[in-house]
Amino acid sequence: MGILDFLGWRQEPFAASAASADTDTVRKIAAALDRLEPARARYLAAFAYLLSRVAHADLQISPEETSAMEHIVMEKGGLPEAQAVLVVQMAKTQSVLFGGTENFLVTREFDEIASREDKLAFLGCLFAVSGADGTVSSAEETTIRKIASELHLDHADYIAAKVSFRADLDPA
């Protein structure tokens, strides 16, 4: 099950996936987010998942990284705080549970739905999340580089985003 399926944002109705949801909480979260236009919901789901992918690259997601993700999803996604918190929590859970199998698939979907300008701005968001705890680990930096490549961005695009956060980079 992918993040988009879990969030109920694929083309099939939520009722088809509701049978696999074990709790009322999941149903309430999905219902709260169901009001978004499907294309926008897919974009935000992929956006939040990829933020979580970078935050979890070092096998832990700090409270500072979570807070940064929530703020970015609120600001860039135009969501109220409560919805941003829900989206980030769901994305974090999916990233931790299914990261190995979903990483490329979600990145490919984001590549298809985001403009070049969106992708360039997104690189800055990735560095902002990874640097929220005061450093960008080498694992996080490697993951950002991999995402940039999967988004078909040039190395120069990656370097330009990286330079903005050079002070936070882990020298190891």
Q: Can you describe what's shown?
A:
The protein is globular and about 40 Å long. Helix 7 runs antiparallel to helix 8 and helix 7 crosses helix 9. The protein has a single domain, classed as TerB-like. The chain is built from nine helices and no strands. The longest helix is centred in the middle third of the chain and has 33 residues. Helices cover 72% and strands 0% of the residues. It is mostly helical and 172 residues long.
Count of separate DSSP helical elements: 9
Name the CATH homologous superfamily: TerB-like
Number of domains: 1
Following the backbone from N to C, one meets helices and strands in this order, namely HHHHHHHHH
**What kind of sheet is the major sheet?**
none
- Helix content class: over 70%
In terms of structural class, how would the helical and strand content be classed?
A: mainly alpha
Rg over CA atoms: 15 Å
Total number of beta strands: 0
What fraction strand?
under 5%
* Uncertain regions spanning at least 5 consecutive residues: 11-23
Identify the overall geometry: globular
Estimate the mean pLDDT confidence.
81
CATH fold naming: TerB-like
Termini separation comes to 36 Å
Present the secondary structure layout.
Layout lengths: L2 H4 L7 H5 L5 H10 L4 H18 L7 H15 L3 H33 L2 H15 L7 H13 L4 H10 L8
In short:
72% of the residues lie in helices and 0% in strands. The protein has 9 helices and no strands.
